[in-house]
Amino acid sequence: MLTLDTLFEPSLLSLQNVTYATPFGSPEVDIVFGVVDGMHETIPDMRKLWESHDMEYLGGGFGLEDYLLMTEFPVTSIEDLKGRKINAPGPAVNWLKGTGAVGVSGNLTTYYNDIQTGVAEGVIVFPTAAAAAKLFEVAPYVTRTGFGAQYAGAIVAKKSWFDELPAEVQEAIRTGVAEFAVAYRAGLEERVVGAFAAMEAGGANVSVLAAEERQRWAQSLPDIAGDWARAQDEQGLDGTGVVNTYMQELKDAGVLLPRDWTVE
Fold first, then answer.
1. I want to staple 131 with a disulfide (CB 3.0 to 4.6 A). Which of 11, 115, 198, 217 is the partner?
2. What is the per-residue pLDDT for 78?
3. Does residue 15 carry a pLDDT above 90?
4. Which of 57, 51, 44 lies closest to 236 in space, CA to CA?
5. What is the DSSP string of 24-52?
6. Predicted confidence band at 157 (pLDDT cuts at 50, 70, 90)?
């Protein structure tokens, strides 16, 4: 068995990246992971992508906590971003479109140096990574924008191997994976609390973006979910179904969305 980060496989496991195409979703990892995990049971293409690479999806996956913005300057509205260069990972660059900010692709190994040297003036990141990388030293303004928690990966097994196991062994493995998922998410909550404490102890100024500004930001974005869904549809995958199911499941879970990304 192995863990696989779907975030780094946007082509091979494209449908699993639906959360990155629908920003400003739920901040709760449990909700996000629970919904995407359940979609593997209701949308055949979700499992087929894993199986096409001889992988058996076991669940128990990984969620990344609510993404936020860290900058050299204070942010209280999207106007504060105009002309600013912001690092963002892969598809999260799209979360800056329409804000006036300039998205600069990067990753955790480059963020600190990029900001320190002026390549960027801020970064979109999740708290535990930000604290570990001490990004607050170069980007002390931490704005909790509520971009949403993200589905980031799962535990899988080589399908041709897994299929040959006795049914009771398969069930035992699935049970262990489910128990791991519970422990992982419980530990994540503690790590997030510790991350904010570490950032504040290091001098970070933590604020929460006002709800009306969060909605303005979400509404200012182009139809990134629709564009993503249609691109999947053109590849013969049910991109539209994935986005629409994800949106409906979030609403059914009581999530208040500043933008409904349902594809018409």
1. 198
2. 95
3. yes
4. 44
5. S--S-HHHHHHHHHHHHHH-HHHHHHHHT
6. very high
Residues 61/37, Cβ–Cβ less than 8 Å: yes
State the amino acid at position 222 in one-letter form: P
State the Cα torsion 122-126-131-132 to the nearest 10°: -110
CA distance 5 to 10: 10
Domains of the chain: 2-252 (3.40.190.170)
Tally the C-alpha atoms within 13 A of residue 34's C-alpha that lie toward its C-beta.
12
Residue with tokens 């990984």: 62
Count CA atoms within 13 Å of residue 69 on its CB side. Answer: 33
> What is the C-alpha separation between 105 and 91, in angstroms, rounded?
9
Looking at the DSSP bridge assignments, the partners of residue 108 are none
Contacts of 124 (CB under 8 A, 6+ apart): 67, 68, 69, 86, 87, 88, 89, 92, 95, 96, 147
Select from 8, 5, 36, 10 the least CA-distant residue to 235: 10
Residue range 226-240, pLDDT digits in tens: 999 999 999 999 999
Distances (CA, A) of 152 to 86, 179, 208, 211, 229: 22, 18, 24, 26, 18
Of 214, 204, 230, nearest to 146 by C-alpha is 214
